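Ligand: S-adenosylmethionine. Inputs:
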Amino acid sequence: MRFDVVSLFPDWVASVADWGVTGRARERGLMSVHCWDPRDFTRDRHRTVDDRPYGGGPGMVMKVDPLRQAIQAARVDDETPARVIYMSPQGRRLDQAGVHHLAALPRVILLAGRYEGIDERLIQLEVDEEWSIGDYVLSGGELAAMVVIDACARLLPGALGDALSATQDSFSQGLLDCPHYTRPEVVDGLGVPEVLRCGDHGRIERWRRKQALGRTWERRPDLLAQQELSEADCRLLEE
Ligand code: SAM
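Predicted complex:
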């Protein structure tokens, strides 16, 4: 998968592919991140990318031209067709289903806004989808773009050390994940549930499923309401 990111802070965004799972995915050739700085597409001495808003009011607005040219430069850099995604608090709120949708695309151009946002006409002319990473406002779209890159990268086949990890993560089966433990066996008097040390894989699986169901019921009943539970799951919940 190829990510192009249009951002005023290209080095920061590019660093997302230097570490951990995303770093490994890049090293394995599963994904790449290419950054485009709109300032490189300005023609004035100050490399101006913003201007005052029509109608007055606080803050500045990102201008159409430098962004449009940066998007165009990204487009023609590779023949793979790309969808242009504007990271915006006004977009569809990202969830795991949204991440699956994005990770299935061969290529995305992520647009990171700054200031009060970007000129509405750029959105009308160039943007295919708007995505938000939550109901709060960031100073810029860079972190949001990095969130998308990270969440997509871990779904790419071969990115994780163990492919099963992604299928057991929260949301992948509509539930929250079960609790996890590692050595030592006792921490400040707190032990590890006996079942995880018994070696009976059937029991362990049932326990994990029950924990996942219980946690989801306690913490995110909205997720459970969207599930059609099997008879076995219902029995586990009643135990
Ligand atoms: N005035 C805009 C509004 O209220 O909708 C917010 C502008 S915000 C300060 C600057 C940029 O940060 C936006 O253009 C967008 O790219 C990014 N951003 C802020 N919050 C975001 C969120 N929750 N999800 C994705 N991007 C966000």
